[in-house]
Amino acid sequence: MKIKLPKVWILLGLILTMTGCGQRKQEALHVVESLSLTDGLYEGYATLTGGTGKATLENPTKIEIKEQTIYATLIWSSSNYDYMLVDEKKYENEAELGEPSRFTIPIAQLDCDIPVVADTTAMSTPHEISYILKLSLKKDDGDAKETEKSAEANEKQKEKIDFSYLGEKKVSTLNYATEFSLEAYGDYKVIRIQNGDTYLIVPKNTKVPKSLPKEVKVINQPIQHTYLVSTSVMDCIDKLGALSQVTLTGTKKKDWYLKPARQAMEKQKLLYAGKYSAPDYELLLEKQCDLAIENTMIYHNPEVKEKLEELKIPVFVERSSYEKHPLGRLEWVKAYGALFGKEEAACDFYEEQVSQIEPVLEQEATGKTVAYFYCTTNGAINVRKPNDYIAKMIELAGGEYVLKNTLETEENGLSTMNMEIESFYYKAKDADILIYNSTIDGELEGVDELLRKNEIFKEFKAVKENEVYCTTSNFFQESTGTCAFIQDLHSVMKKEEKNFTYLKKLK
Fold first, then answer.
1. What is the band of 98 on the pLDDT scale with cuts at 50, 70, 90?
2. Which neighbouring-strand residues pair with 118?
């Protein structure tokens, strides 16, 4: 879809350029006021120079005016940046483990060079790297037209690719997932991804159909040597009994919390083959890699995807994290079942999981309010947005997310945001339950550790009533634990004594 920016923003960029990039922030804000811009969200474009030249920023870039201050949300092409330094002030990574690093920073100028520093943990020891950031509200019309053209091509592709000549069409029923569809044509399976990618799965001893459109990506079974980059997929594959078909990974042993994956690496049955942006192509070829499963971060390094495909390694890009409903994320197990020839096991597993929480879903709401958060090192509070899947799981468990209807829910792909501690206190001080998200900085050992982060938590109702919990470190990678987590939440709200799967009560 073509990006259309307000004319006032283009004018603002021209004014800032004409007046010089060294003007003070107050002058930039004066321009905003003079143009009568109201608080709200706008689209911009970010470029990055310096460093190794490999790092990029996602575009369009979200720019927000809030209380006459300009903020930019920068999403990196890597998940290895843990903080940024801008004007000597430190900003912490806001993203979940495994997601591209994300920072929200205030900016004083547009269309000029802004020196920044980003600390990367990708090397043997952390390193601060200097970059030059440039933010603009003008994007090249040619790029915009190409984006629009590509989107239109994807839509037409989904309409024109017809596989009915392969056999009778049978569409698998999906209850919650919207980011993929699954079809069968005789012995062939077809997976269509929401972004336009279409995969034809060809069974063993079956010929690849002739005259396939070049857009169709062919995956031949049996798959025996998968290069798995998307960590959230590993749990699904393990539950299907297909872990032995994954022999290469983009995650080092020390970064696996999933026990079967760690054990496989210890036994040398699962080998580290380089991260998503720099795979070990020689090792992939040596081990006869026949499939790469990536998440959407691969689109930040299109040359890697092109190289894999050039080497005849099909690339399957999964989008489970884009599902709005938590059970939609879980339902992606059916897509992996189709890939690995485990369709029946996938359907049985999904139905068994959902049946476990049916009694919970049928109960009336508990009336309990829940806050889910973590503290950043610069004193802010990172929270989930009301349209995030965590908030939805709280609702399914019979609770109410304490920030419901109080935060913006714009469709920008971001699941979290930072709040000042004062704002969080106002919204969450009377919450019945506090849940600390341990994904970023590890599990808390007790309430005293939370209080050391900020003593203001002493005033929270949940702290006074000893209703403080944290998630366990394996929660993120055990992606099939959706229903177990909902059960944990429900038990907490009902004050049931049990051994939780993904929650730990803090004392």
1. confident
2. 84, 129
Cα–Cα dist 256/250, whole Å: 11
Are β-strands 468-471 and 433-436 bridged in parallel, bridged antiparallel, or unpaired? parallel
Closest CA to 98 of 387, 338, 415, 315: 415
Question: Residues 6 or more apart from 392 whose CB is under 8 A from it?
Answer: 324, 325, 326
Q: With cut-offs at 50, 70 and 90, classify the pLDDT of residue 70.
A: confident
**Phi then psi for 435, rounded to 5 degrees?**
-125, 120
User: Which domains are present in the chain?
Assistant: 7-142 (2.60.40.1850), 363-505 (3.40.50.1980)
Q: Which two tokens stand for residue 44?
A: 């911009």
Determine if residue 418 is left, alpha or beta; phi over 0 gives left, psi from -120 to 50 gives alpha, anything else beta: beta
What is the per-residue pLDDT across 340-365, written as a single tens digit (0 to 9) for each? 999 999 999 999 999 988 889 888 99
Q: Which of 474, 500, 492, 483 is nearest to 393 (CA)?
A: 483
For strands 315-317 and 503-505, give the pairing: unpaired
Residues whose CB falls within 8 Å of the CB of residue 239, separated by 6 or more in sequence, listed in order: 333, 349, 480
How many angstroms separate the CA atoms of 195 and 152, rounded? 11
pTM passes above 0.85: no
Residue 353 near residue 506 (C-beta atoms within 8 A):
no
Reference 377, options 89, 129, 69; nearest CA is 89
Query: Using H for helix, E for strand and C for coil, what is the string for 342-396?
Result: CHHHHHHHHHHHHHHHHHHHCCCCCCCEEEEEEECCCCCEEEECCCCHHHHHHHH
Residue of higher predicted confidence among 31 and 129: 129
220 in helix, strand or coil? strand
Residue type present at position 423: S
What DSSP element (H or E) covers 504? Answer: strand 503-505
Helix (H) or strand (E) holding 33: helix 25-34
- SS3 for 74-105, per residue? EEECCCCEEEEEECCEEEECCCCCCCCCEEEE
Burial class (CB in 10 A: 0-12, 13-18, 19+), 220: middle
Backbone torsions φ then ψ of 133, nearest 5 degrees: -100, 140
Question: pLDDT by residue (tens digit) across 159-181?
Answer: 568 898 899 999 999 999 999 99
Residue 136, H or E segment: strand 127-136
Radius of gyration of the chain (CA): 24
Residues 6+ apart with CB under 8 A from 155: 196
Between CA 296 and CA 289 the distance in angstroms is 20
**CA 276 to mean position of chain CA atoms:** 15
